[in-house]
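Minutes, project check-in

Agenda point 3 was the complex the collaborators sent over. CS summarized: two entities, 814 residues total, and the question is how they sit relative to each other. Sequences were read into the notes so everyone works from the same version.
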Amino acid sequence: MVGNVIVGQSGGPTSVINSSLAGVFKTAKDRGVKKVYGMRHGIKGLLDRQFVDLSEKLSSDMDIDLLKRTPSSYLGSCRYKLPEIGEDKETYDKIFAILDELDVKFFFYIGGNDSMDTIKKLSDYGLIIGSDIKFMGVPKTIDNDLAVTDHTPGFGSAAKYIAATMKEIIRDGLVYDYPTVTIVEIMGRNAGWLTAAAALARGEDCEGVDLIYLPEKVFDIDHFVDKVKELYANGRSMVIAISEGIKVLDGRYVFELSDHVEFVDAFGHKQLAGSAKFLANKIAAEIGVKTRAIELSSLQRCAAHMTSRTDITEAYNVGGAAVKAAFEGESGKVVVLKRISDDPYMCITETHDVHQIANIEKKVPLEWITEDDFVTDDLIHYIRPLIQAELSPIMVDGLPRHLNVDK
Amino acid sequence: MVGNVIVGQSGGPTSVINSSLAGVFKTAKDRGVKKVYGMRHGIKGLLDRQFVDLSEKLSSDMDIDLLKRTPSSYLGSCRYKLPEIGEDKETYDKIFAILDELDVKFFFYIGGNDSMDTIKKLSDYGLIIGSDIKFMGVPKTIDNDLAVTDHTPGFGSAAKYIAATMKEIIRDGLVYDYPTVTIVEIMGRNAGWLTAAAALARGEDCEGVDLIYLPEKVFDIDHFVDKVKELYANGRSMVIAISEGIKVLDGRYVFELSDHVEFVDAFGHKQLAGSAKFLANKIAAEIGVKTRAIELSSLQRCAAHMTSRTDITEAYNVGGAAVKAAFEGESGKVVVLKRISDDPYMCITETHDVHQIANIEKKVPLEWITEDDFVTDDLIHYIRPLIQAELSPIMVDGLPRHLNVDK
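CS then shared the predicted structure for the full assembly.
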């Protein structure tokens, strides 16, 4: 194989993003590539000449298996958007110079829709300057908000973690003989896929979540209080799932309705936190019932001890498929998952033009959200296959073992 | 065996309290007891004549195995303190009448130090009226704050969950190439055992937690800010573990220093929440660094998918040992764990007078907390054996299966 490979990870981490890295690395090595470089901290790190020789880091099959079980981005991540090509050619020339210097002919970037923008711009620039480097996007995001693909690697494991912990929170929340209200806040700023996964908790052995609120629908606080009052009148303890991104009619996030200090992070993003707490206080004040607010927080994207084997395998496969496609000459593409059968569940990989994927958000269709504040069976059937089966952690001295690029 | 058995669960749930229930049930049935009753919602439910025949509910070996893997209290719980004997004989007479009616000769109560008060009072009253019913306490609490016993069933699994998730949070928190501060709030109102378990994350594959703050020591905010500044000056991302119960010199909880609304729950307990958030805001304001606050919340006590096999086994054993002791005539006692060897770790059960255990809190010794805001190796060595080995969840359709008394 002529030329080397470089691979980077970008955006928010997931539990299985390293499985895609393993898929890229192993597939490239198996096809005789001499060097597989890893960018440290994505394209931003590469601009600072931060990279590692992955063959030195991943020297045994055990390393590959540990990598698959390591949460967060093994190579480090960044949140960095390349400038528009017309505005800053210098940055692009610098990147291509570094790639040439490393004799890189194949460039893989594992990330969400922001990161696919990097693949789009680099492959566009490559065409302009007549470069023969192939650029391929490898999808990941717990949010499942990428266009074209049936679902994104990372979503299934986050959904499994959410459904499994909701079952546990429900057991915990229903333990007393007086009614309580537990409100659980789940990630997803604009898309409700993860919050919808809470619906999977319901089953033969579990009462399930009572109400689910996604950001795709305007959140009506009075209606919400009425629904809780209705259940409370039946003497019921209840568990409610809300998305961190739910907004009221005037466009404000629910947490913005409180008099708490409002935070803006280093990137100018409003820090979403406290919608569950705000609603728990509201319910406690209006109904006089004991309430509790739980934020599932970053464990949703890093609980590698509770991953979906289906997800891990698909994450590996999209990495491998990206390498295969690039080696066959494709560029400026993203590997996507196409569900070819529901029963039994079967998914294959395809490649798709990055221009139709980058910067586009896929939301939960409104027809999958019910009038009684839940989600449809169609939505549950869509998610269910994605959480199937497990990949047991490798436990050492009582704790899951990870792979650490710095150790 | 003459007479029936009754067993109840009380106080905050744990991941392994049902393993103790399994130990009581199985040991009693194996010794030929005709009926094993389960109180619904502890002694409070019993007073309302709420109980089940456990033989009907637990009819197969599979049920026992599912019970061991079910978080929270299978029979339901209560937070109810019996009146002083001198003040209200009526309540006691009612309880003993119900027990007589059910032909109960052996009474087991699984709980923490508040629940052991119930065993103390019932056995005292039994002596006064000359009852031949045997009363035994079975210890549980994630807080590990029970006197006399080396540790409490429930603590090891919570410690394992905390250490495992801290490892994941650390991988997630160190992913970017700029410094961030993650502050994780851990349960434990007065005792810092659980927060100390965060120290176990450090190892060959993990940078570990940087700073640990337990409630046993006065929390000095200026000192804290200085410590964070010091680490930040080295360009370090950091992860910090704090107990929900840390207090400043004047006795206020850290979260009480904020201008947030203060909550008091139905029992007059102040709702502890927000110390991590308060400190994260403080650090963000003073240093200008990106911060994140995480509350591990109730998953610490209900994450049955990540239990310690050592803990599950010991929880089962204290249940069994309570039955054995009661059948041999003991009463007014609590089963305790005695560590007879550290290397290899070995623990046996003993029984101990309930009067020396009820209502007493065991805290982390100050000599196990270091000057540089961490814990000693002695404390780590004390906890390490308690998190060893696993009991895999039984996964059905992608999720851990539980046993549900109402289904």
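Noted in discussion: Chain B has two domains: 4-141+304-359+389-400, 155-300.
Follow-up: revisit at the next meeting once the mutant set is ready.
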